[in-house]
Amino acid sequence: MESAHSRREAEHVDKIRQALRDKKLVIIVGAGVSLSAIRPAPLRITWTGLIRDGLDYLEDMCYVSADDGELNFYRGILQRENIDVRKVLRVCGYLKDELSHHRQYPTWLHSVFGSLHRDVTHPEIFKALQEFHQKGARLLTTNYDELLERFCNLQRVRRSIPDDVRKYEQGTLDGVFHVHGSFQDPKEVVLDAVSYYQVQTSDDVQNLLKTYLGHNTILFVGCGSGLEDPNFDALLKWATSREENIPNHHYLLVRDRDNLRYHPLITLKYGQNYEDLVPYLRKLLDGPAEVPANKETFAENVSENLLQLLPHATKALFNAYEKEGNSFCLPDTRVKLIENIRAWVNSNDTRHIFWLSGWAGTGKSTIARTVAQENYNRNRLGASFFFSRGGGDISDAGSFYTSIARQLANNVPLVRRHICEAIVQRRDIATQSLRDQWRQLVLGPLSKLDLNSHPISYILVIDALDECSDENHIRSILQLLAEARLLKNVQLRIFLTSRPEIPIRYGFHEIPESEHQDFVLHNISPLIVDHDISTFLIHNLTLIGRENSLEVGWPGVETINRLVQNASGLFIWAATACRFIRNGLFVEERLRTILEGGTSTATPEEHLNNIYITVLQNAIRLDYMEEEKQRLYRMLRDILGSIVVLFSPHSVKSLSKLLFIPNQKMNIALKDLHAILDIPEDQTRPLRPHHPSFRDFLLNQDRCGDPNFWVEEKQVHRKLAKNCIQLMSTSLRQDICGVDASGVLVAEVDSTQVEQCLPPEVQYACVYWIQHLQKSGAQLCDNDQVHQFLQVHFLHWLEALSWVRKVSEGIHAITSFESISLTSDCPDLYAFIHDMKRFALYSRSAIEQAPLQVYCSALMFTPNMSLVKKQFIGRVPQWIKRLPEVEKDWNALLQTLEGHSIYVNSVAFSPDGKILASASNDGTVKLWDAGTGAVLQTLEDHSRSVNAIAFSPDGKILASASYDETVKLWDAGTGAVLQTLEGHSGSVKAMAFSPDGKILASASYDETVKLWDASIGAVLQTLKGHSRWVTAVAFSPDSKVLASASRDKTVKLWDAGTGAVLQTFEVDTIIKTFTFSEDGTLIQTNRGVLHITPLSSGDNLSRSSPSHGIFVKEQWVRWGTGDILWLPPEYRPRCTTVYGSVIALGYSSGRLLFLEFAFRTPPPHPPPLQLTPFYS
Fold first, then answer.
1. What CATH number does the domain located at 895-1175 have?
2. Domain residue extents for the chain
3. For a tag site, which of 184, 691, 845, 926 has the least CB within 10 Å?
């Protein structure tokens, strides 16, 4: 029998549901929601925990000493039982004043909440709240974090903008209303008594809440008791103080153990713990909700829109339209191998990667297609990706993981929702690192599959990994795919084929043998291979015989055996031979031609050469006149040479325009080459060789043999460069897309409009003309074709690159171009190219976003003596009547990098100077292309701000130190976390690798230095001796001595092998950075130079010695110790790093600046830093 209590609760649940149906439900979210989503939840989420964290921050950052009486007084308040809110507000006032005084208030808030979303382990509560919102509920929160809007995909509504508050009340502005502010807007955060009471008396907030009390039903969710969430408590007390003005029922969800009474609010108990909120909210939703079709959610009816955000290489699929006609393994061929692969797919073998390697032409791709097709038919294929060199988006890894994710979403329905969730959480995921794409779009969603409902395995088929153009991408793919072993709820098999090339062999050496199975295709018994080739030939030649009405049994066993012998184990030979015979008018004559072209003693490669040359020679008819033959030879060399050296494939239509060969002549030249080229009937589809071995043959004079067909690679590149320039000269113009508005963004123009105005051949010319010029080995000279093109079309070219989103590639090309011109005798051209680089770097951000700004902002703010500005000043729009005052010439600033949301704490160049790493208080590390300023990767794994970064001497490992008391080692190429080093009891402030790369030293607020084995992450030594936190560490050139500096104003020298203190120096200042000189006798610091003698001499001599190098000291950039550049206050950095003559500066705003200098005289000698030696 149902109890009265149960009936009453059912009535209340029905009223809440009715309010939701009537669009009258308002949900106010408290700290319990965040505590429910993060388990175990960090103490800093609660109010008192947050305040304790702030007091610790003041001490850790040395803004207040540990023995400060006022600090300890306020700490004592927090330790009392039954703390009064007013007293805690007093502590908050002290905390906010101290943090604000040191300009650390926003930084501290961001360090607490900025990366909190990465700690969310149970996002289900946000999904439930999102469903409430999608059904019409309004969402408010008293929390400072951004979890609700991030996971519900909503905007933040700010309390301090009265107009927004009124719009929110009227329902014309949607989002999450932060009653007590968000850490993103530090001025709004209600922390101290002043702001606390300001909110309580705010007319706008009061009116909003009064409206909801009088006309809606309010559901208070995530109530914490007492000082867990006093903001929530204050809001509840305010609401209940208006008891006489509350005509509606309002509800408060509480835990079973909470003895909370806020009359007349109705309390509903949902369970023992915060995590019990989700099932209760689900009950209020009355089961899983149907998501409205007009909302972008995780539901099926909009998931396709979300998936469209992921770039998809459609030609990568095993069954792509472009691969129509590609063969599969015939019955009774590859029998044993296919059985082995099938058994591996179905087994529980821990070797989750199957690597099939083999020489060119041995049939790897055919086997891969067969494996993919078989598993596709069984609904076991997760995804396939067939790489192809020179194939555009299938020649590199740019679209690899996004394509895999798109296919998984289509092939594995249960994972589709999880992939869509990942896209909603990070809509820019396609622009992030390969590691992030793999983990967010593939590994993460698969890990959420339910084992009970999905016990089977899935397979990824990846073909021709060796044809991926970037060796770093190859290495990254192998390392990340190896992480499939971490999946527990589903078994992911990876079938991978490639030639046995060094980068791939090296990549597999880094994966434990217990995790991959290898099969070498060309080591199969010749008898088995010959049998399979024989079966292939019989099948295809029988079909050809039927098509040509030849006798049954043609061409006979003896002929088949001779063909098998000529194939020499290469399936590509057999496939090419069959295509050649089928495409001929007289198939028997073609068969005879092939049989006459081979010898029994030839090698497999020679047999392949013979069949390629046979096909080519048969394309030249014997009845052609000699002049016609020579013209056709030249045309074929141009066409075939271009096909094999182009950086991305072209259709017949676009290739004819690029080569300036009429379409009709192109078709005549190609009509007899179907045996070696895939020539689609649709002339808009890409034209490519059937097999990559044809490229090797055509470009190798020894292999090709016939000078009529051999292609000299540099000559082809030279002609393509010339054609690209000619094509751009006739095609490019200002505002080529006809948008007629300088502020139009790239993202606002439909891609079809861009493709119409910039057809494929023009896009190709814009992106690759400099690469062709570089590979041609051509010498440049002043006023040549290249120089004249740039003086007319440089801005047009930059505009075009922006429309096709290739500005970074263009800057890379300009840098290469500058190197070419430097080796040529062309001073005027070199000067112009150098100015082009400065111009592009300086204005990159504006040009990338709005292409027509190249004629506006970019020209206007460029220095007056810029050669580019002088050349193109007439292109500034006429509606700009007066130009701003700008500098006369370029200064040392190369470019400004923007991407971090708050302070940059540390910057470091990779040893080769190609990558700049930056660490920020936003909890991330970014890797930048030092040449273009483009973001290469964003590394996210720390839970607090990142204080320091350092590259290993070989540049392969990046170490990062964080306020979360850990050091992380990252693979600098892939962005994968290699190790997390734990052991410090305080924030880690500084790090250094030993020059031999074997040891990593880390310095911490816990007053210690730890020495780690850089290869395995084990602690070697913990060095104790400083009395305050350690600010800097550096190794001597021989890796034997470690120097450490501390807030205690001492520098210690340690024996890196034993951990013994060798010397201690007192200094008159706090040292934050230092490095040893090459001979180990000097330590260059941010405050001067320490001069040390060999440690065995007994005394330290303070003496003057020459010092080289650039660094920043206070407001000056110094060379040695000579001041060379004064920095205005707004340009004084938080951190710096130097590579050669380039210095990178990191700022509190999150931006980075590059400065470059050219020195012709040695720097002055530095004076010694005052110090006093102590000996241990």
1. 2.130.10.10
2. 4-42+119-284, 300-524, 527-618, 713-881, 895-1175
3. 845
800, 902, 874, 791: which is closest to 836 by C-alpha? Answer: 791
**Assigned token pair, 744:** 């139009």
For residue 208, which of 235, 243, 237 has the smallest C-alpha distance?
A: 235
Q: What tokens appear for 809 in the block?
A: 């590639």
Give how far Cα 105 sits from Cα of 71, 86, 488, 964, 976, Å: 17, 21, 42, 18, 32
Q: Cite the beta strand spans of 39-193 per DSSP E.
A: 138-141, 156-157, 176-178
CATH of region 300-524? 3.40.50.300
State the SS3 of 1007-1049: CEEEEEECCCCCEEEEEECCCCCEEEEEECCCCCEEEEEECCC
Residues 6+ apart with CB under 8 A from 275: 36, 39, 122
- The SS3 call for residue 991 is strand
Backbone dihedral region for residue 1000 (phi beyond 0: left; psi -120 to 50: alpha; all else: beta) = beta
Domains 4-42+119-284 and 300-524 equal at CATH topology level: yes
Cβ 803 vs Cβ 895: under 8 Å: no
Query: Which residue, among 920, 922, 891, has the nearest Cα to 1147 in the 3D structure?
Result: 920
For residue 851, give Cα distances in angstroms to 765, 800, 864, 1064.
18, 8, 22, 58
Q: What is the C-alpha to C-alpha distance for residues 371 and 817, in angstroms, rounded to an integer?
A: 45
**Is the C-alpha dihedral spanning 763, 766, 768, 773 positive or negative?**
positive
Quote the CA–CA distance of 913 and 615 in Å, as a whole number: 49
737 in Cβ contact with 801 (< 8 Å): no
Which stretch of DSSP H or E encloses residue 462? strand 457-463
Question: In CATH terms, is domain 4-42+119-284 a member of 3.40.50.1220?
Answer: yes
pLDDT along the chain (1176 residues), means of 10: 71 89 90 82 76 86 78 81 72 85 85 82 88 91 88 84 79 86 84 57 70 84 65 70 64 80 80 84 68 40 68 87 77 86 87 86 86 90 89 83 92 86 77 84 86 70 89 85 85 89 78 85 76 84 85 86 81 82 80 73 74 82 81 90 89 92 87 82 80 84 86 93 96 93 85 91 95 90 93 96 92 88 89 93 87 89 91 87 82 80 85 90 87 84 89 93 91 83 91 94 93 91 91 91 90 92 83 79 70 49 43 68 63 74 74 68 44 36
CA–CA separation, 1171 and 891 (whole Å): 37
Q: What's the angle, vertex CA 946, arms to CA 941 and CA 948, rounded to 5?
A: 125
Q: Let me know: does 549 contact 590? Beta carbons within 8 Å.
A: no
Written as six digits, the tokens of 941 are 């794994």
Smallest CA-to-CA distance from 849 within 812, 893, 807 is with 807
Burial class (CB in 10 A: 0-12, 13-18, 19+), 1132: middle
**CA atoms of 508 and 732, how far apart (whole Å):** 46
For the chain, the distance separating the N- and C-terminal CA atoms, rounded to the nearest angstrom, is: 84
The gap from C-alpha 123 to its chain's centroid, in whole angstroms, comes to 24
Q: Is 383 helix (H, G, I), strand (E, B) or coil?
A: strand
Residue 1127 gets which letter from DSSP? Answer: P
E strands of 814-914, at which residues? 893-897, 904-909
CA dist., res. 224 & res. 217, Å (int):
20
CA angle 715, 720, 725 (to 5 degrees): 130
Q: Apex CA 961: angle with CA 957 and CA 964, to 5°?
A: 135
> Cα separation of 899 and 909, whole Å?
17
What is the DSSP track for 920-962? ETTSEEEEEETTT--EEEEEE--SS-EEEEEE-TTSSEEEEEE
User: Distance between CA 835 and CA 687 in Å, rounded?
Assistant: 38
